[in-house]
Amino acid sequence: MGLTEASILDDLQRAAEVGVDRVDWDLNIVGTPILDQLDAFRRLAKLLW
Fold it and tell me: For the segment 4-31, what is each residue's pLDDT rounded down to a tens digit?
C-alpha cells in the first residue's frame, strides 16, 4: 500500500487522537523531486491548519 495524501491525513488524525502534537516532516521522499515534495507539504499543511 502506497502513501497518499489521504492516508497521511488519516495517519496524522490517528496520531493526534493518541496525543501526538508534533510531527517532524522529512522532505526526503525517495525518488520525488524536491519541488513536488514541497507542493505536497503545502497542500497537506493547508488541510491541517
Answer: 878 888 888 899 999 999 888 776 777 7
Half-sphere exposure of 37 (CA within 13 A, CB side): 10
Per-residue confidence at 49, pLDDT binned at 50, 70, 90? Answer: low
Residue with cell 491525513: 9
Domain-wise residue ranges, the chain: 24-49
Residue 37 burial by Cβ neighbours in a 10 Å radius (0-12, 13-18, 19+): middle
Q: SS3 for 20? A: coil
